[in-house]
Write a structure and sequence with these properties.
The complex is a heterodimer.
Chain A: E1 5-7, E2 10-13, E3 19-24, E4 31-37, E5 43-50, E6 53-57, E7 65-68, E8 75-79, E9 88-95, E10 105-106, E11 110-114
Parallel strand pairs in A: 2-11
Antiparallel strand pairs in A: 1-3, 3-8, 4-5, 4-9, 5-6, 7-8, 9-10, 9-11
Chain B: E1 3-7, E2 10-14, E3 19-26, E4 30-38, E5 45-51, E6 56-59, E7 62-67, E8 72-77, E9 86-94, E10 102-104, E11 108-113
Parallel strand pairs in B: 2-11
Antiparallel strand pairs in B: 1-3, 3-8, 4-5, 4-9, 6-7, 7-8, 9-10, 9-11
The chains are: A mainly beta, B mainly beta.
Chain lengths: 115, 114
Amino acid sequence: EPEVTQTPSHQVTQMGQEVILRCVPISNHLYFYWYRQILGQKVEFLVSFYNNEISEKSEIFDDQFSVERPDGSNFTLKIRSTKLEDSAMYFCASSEATGGPYEQYFGPGTRLTVT
Amino acid sequence: KNQVEQSPQSLIILEGKNCTLQCNYTVSPFSNLRWYKQDTGRGPVSLTIMTFSENTKSNGRYTATLDADTKQSSLHITASQLSDSASYICVVSANGAGSYQLTFGKGTKLSVIP
């Protein structure tokens, strides 16, 4: 069964450093998403991406964040200058379509630890 | 502001027993409601998706209900198994002005014990 994959599974970085989190969505999906989950808290929407551009973003997704689809398979989230409060689990998801009851398939997540 | 509230926060049940988890939401305009299962340290996995017109949806031992008038949903788990131990998250999707964001509840942490 196709699945969303994410790398690395765990990333440790120092405050102020740039990190890139990588995702490979399911191959025939057109919509891609990033979510984050701070330890012990709920999952929060960051951004959705379609047709090589951001279709929607939340208040959390400020200028420190950017997303890119550098090739036909990868989808990346970049955090330019990490802060302690960026420590969280980051989930990538993908779906065939949006705006209705379309499944979003989540990856296993990348645990980001900022020290 | 769109919100999803779940109860109870946590629940411990004996293997083989049934349980029901609750979800109340204030998401508008409503598009659909989802229940996800999330194992510790893993990504959420979809159990059911229900639109406005659906009252009940089943997926094996999981049955979700939706009352769009009262903005309440429940997830009933029948004949629980040890592998059901996880967080169960209620997620509501809005659909308005081009916004299709998912709003997540905090989840109910279910522990099934032998």
